[in-house]
Every structure is written in structure tokens, then in C-alpha cells.
Write a structure and sequence with these properties.
By secondary structure, this protein is α/β, with parallel strands linked by helices. It is built from ten helices and eleven strands. Strands 5, 6, 7, 8, 9, 10 and 11 form a seven-stranded mixed β-sheet that branches. The longest helix has 16 residues. It comes from Pseudoalteromonas shioyasakiensis. Belongs to the bacterial solute-binding protein 3 family.
Length: 250
């Protein structure tokens, strides 16, 4: 074997060694939702995908993504050990009964999007509703206890309007058919920036702010596996912040 061929073989071995992992984890993805998880040029990408890849690589794992038809299916697969990890999970005692929750790795912040008007800037949600503002919502999302309270109040039935598509909610705001829409902060900003919509801003009032976690399998992951994942999350907070900044500008 010539020196050049030997050199290339050594480089290949070292490269494979550098990218080897102790274990491949099956990661369940139940929906495509930009900027968190979506396909671009046929490849799965997004904030949560990048964070999972970063954390698992540091923890010594590789990731294999498994697309699920629904969140409900994802929970069932995790419960029965068919997948090892579900990202983008909010905590609940029911979910905690069949999985381990990691350290939080980002927040899910629900915000009001609007064309600013100074007389309404200092108002909270109730104040906006008392001023007869019409707010679009998504029936499938949780916006916190205060919003749920007002949503269930018949007094505000005509002001809290459900529209299923974020694109449609944005279009209705742009057309000035409503005063606000409420949505996940990063998802709303990503779509606004992608569409180059001018003048829409975040209202100062924060509707809800919850931590987001990985749900980890009780049956397929050892205590040391979970500890490695938690350590990687805690050690990469700045890197996670930088990942988010690559997708959304404040």
C-alpha cells in the first residue's frame, strides 16, 4: 500500500471514530411546524431538530427520526418503548406517569401579534377584551389559565375567534379584519419574517410562558443515559439560544 493510500485510510478511520456514537436513539416527531420541525429540500430541519442533534451528539448518541401521525401516537410509542425520545413536550402529571422529563431546553411563549396602537399598549388580556378587541386563536393550542378562563366566558364569545391555520390568522390581521392573533412567539415571528410582513409587532403582554422538555423513555433509557442528556442540555444553553437566533430575529 502506498503512503498516500495509507494516509487516506488513517484519515477515514479517524473521521469515523470522531463521529461514532454509543447508541442510536429513536426520536419521535409528530408534526411539522416551522420553525421547530419541518422539511426543507427533503431534509428534516428546524430548532427542535438542531437542538436534539446537538444534545444527543454531546451525550454520545446518534438520532434516528421517526415521523408520527399524531402526538397521541407519539406518546403511545414512547410508553411502549418504540421510540426513546419526544422533543417539544410540555409537562403534565399524566405524561410524567409513563416517561421521564429532561431538563427544560427552551420556553414556549404565547404572545399577541398586532399593529401597534399606543392607547392599547399597556393593557392586559382582559383590558383588551373590555376595549372590544377581536383576537384570533387556535383551538388546538393551550394559552394558559387566564386565556382559558376568558375563552369559556360567553361574554367574550364574539371576540375570541378560532381559526385553525396560522397563515390564515396572519392574513386576517394583515387585512385588518381582526385586531390581534395569539400564537407561539417563535412560530408567529418566523412566518412574519419569512413573508416579509411589515409593521406587525408583539404586544407587551405575555399570554403564557411554559418550559419545554424532552420526554424520555422509562423502558429503553438507563439512568446514566438520561443524566448524559440532561448534562448536555445544561452545558449548551448558549448554543441553544444561538440555534433559535438562526431561525428567528427579535
Amino acid at each position: 500500500m502506498g503512503l498516500k493510500a495509507l494516509f487516506l485510510l488513517v484519515v477515514a478511520v479517524l473521521s469515523n471514530s470522531a463521529f461514532s456514537c454509543d447508541k442510536t436513539l429513536k426520536v419521535g416527531i409528530s408534526q411539522q411546524w416551522a420553525p421547530y420541525a419541518f422539511k426543507q429540500n427533503g431534509k428534516l430541519t428546524g430548532i427542535d431538530i438542531d437542538v436534539v442533534n446537538l444534545v444527543l451528539k454531546e451525550a454520545g448518541f446518534c438520532a434516528k427520526y421517526v415521523v408520527m401521525p399524531s402526538s397521541k401516537r407519539g406518546f403511545a410509542e414512547l410508553k411502549h418503548g418504540k421510540v426513546d425520545l419526544l422533543p417539544a413536550a410540555s409537562y403534565s402529571t399524566e405524561r410524567d406517569s409513563f416517561s421521564f422529563f429532561s431538563e427544560p431546553y427552551r420556553n414556549e411563549v404565547m404572545r399577541l401579534f398586532w399593529y401597534p396602537h399606543s392607547r392599547l399598549e399597556s393593557l392586559d388580556l382582559q383590558g383588551l377584551l373590555e376595549h372590544q378587541q377581536v383576537i384570533l386563536t387556535n383551538s388546538g393550542s393551550y394559552f394558559g389559565p387566564d386565556f382559558t378562563h376568558f375563552k369559556e366566558d360567553a361574554k367574550y364569545k364574539e371576540q375570541l375567534v378560532t381559526v385553525s391555520s396560522l397563515r390564515q390568522r396572519l392574513a386576517m390581521l394583515v387585512a385588518r379584519r381582526v385586531d390581534f392573533f395569539v400564537d407561539d412567539e417563535l412560530a408567529g415571528l418566523y412566518l412574519i419574517q419569512k413573508n416579509n410582513q411589515q409593521g406587525i409587532e408583539l404586544h407587551p403582554y405575555i399570554v403564557n410562558n411554559d418550559s419545554v422538555y424532552f420526554m424520555l423513555s422509562e423502558t429503553t433509557l438507563l439512568a446514566e443515559d438520561r443524566a448524559a442528556i440532561n448534562s448536555a442540555i445544561l452545558n449548551n444553553q448558549q448554543a441553544i439560544t444561538e440555534i433559535i437566533a438562526r431561525y428567528v430575529k427579535y
